[in-house]
TrEMBL record:
It is found in: Cell membrane; Membrane. Signal peptide: none annotated. The keyword Flavoprotein does not apply. This is Probable membrane transporter protein. Belongs to the 4-toluene sulfonate uptake permease (TSUP) (TC 2.A.102) family.
Length: 299
């Protein structure tokens, strides 16, 4: 029972991060599961199946708070399902280690661009022109779905990062749309996993505990996305993108654990400093807007 409670807390933390920033459920939950002594294969299978339920509840919660652009979700869903199913069924036996550093390098560059783009605004409000089209969303769905199935994660990092950097959707709708469409991706990957490997080796109790924790966290995470200013949300997501991909690149280059830890601590401190700076700018902008509002004639 104690282990199931711990696993429920793992699912809660992972979904709180993923539901708030549009990524990192797989990375967070798998990392925490491994830290509790669960075997990698068991952890991966449990995470993928629990994600079906957590992403469904997360999508419903985001919809209730108005965080979802349904046109984006509908276009992403089909290629995402196809990519995830194909990745789990036909490509699971391929070694993706060689491509991982290159993909992480691209995502890291996009993460830096996202942070720079919103920092460059200063106290101004961000504007979002148009909506992402099929030419952008279909490749995101295929690549993100396939990477998610092959490597145990990729839908959020690829989708959230690319859409944020495009400047077409406000950050809260990027996060909400990616989280909502992730349900279809999780179903596709899980079906492919069952088709290729069968149901043996899946620890349903672990998946269930993760699911319960994720369900508890999903509505709160969606509410956070609703109330956080666009710049704060974008900087927060950009920081997660940079941290996770910097770690992958450092490890692929042969950096020792102490060096990796030092790099991540330095980046985390810089990230927190930027968040504090953006929050202060947001408060200053709100005060100025309140002072600029005209006083009613009958006041």
């Amino acid at each position: 029972m104690r282990q199931l409670i711990v696993l429920g807390i793992v699912g809660l933390i992972a979904q709180l991060i993923d539901g708030s920033l549009g990524m990192a459920y797989g990375v967070t939950s798998t990392t925490l599961l491994l830290a509790t002594g669960i075997a990698p294969a068991t952890a991966s299978a449990a995470v993928h199946f629990s994600e079906i339920g957590t992403s469904l509840v997360s999508g419903i919660s985001h919809h209730r708070f108005g965080n979802v652009d349904w046109r984006t979700v509908l276009i992403l869903a089909v290629p995402g399902f196809i990519g995830a199913f194909a990745g789990a069924t036909f490509l699971a036996g391929l070694n993706g280690d060689a491509a991982t550093p290159w993909i992480s390098g691209i995502l890291l560059a996009l993460g830096v661009y996202v942070v720079w783009r919103f920092l460059a605004l200063g106290g101004a409000r961000p504007t979002f022109k148009g909506r992402p089209g099929k030419g952008l969303l279909v490749p995101i769905g295929l690549v993100g779905g396939a990477l998610d199935a092959i490597g145990g994660g990729g839908w959020g990092p690829v989708g959230t990062t690319t859409l944020l950097s495009s400047g077409r959707l406000e950050p809260r709708k990027v996060v909400g749309s990616i989280d909502t469409s992730e349900f279809v991706v999780a179903v596709g990957g899980s079906l492919g996993f069952l088709f290729a490997l069968g149901s043996q080796g899946i620890e349903w109790s672990i998946a269930g505990a993760l699911l319960v924790g994720g369900i508890i966290a999903a509505p709160f995470a969606a509410w956070l996305v609703k109330i956080l200013p666009a710049k704060v949300l974008a900087i927060a997501a950009g920081g997660i993108i940079i941290l996770t991909n910097a770690r992958t690149i450092a490890l692929s280059l042969g950096a020792t654990p102490p060096v990796v830890t030092t790099i991540l601590i330095a980046l985390a401190l810089a990230w927190v400093s930027l968040l504090v700076h953006v929050i202060r700018l947001e408060r200053k902008t709100r005060r100025e807007e309140a002072q600029a509002e005209p006083v009613p004639a009958d006041a």
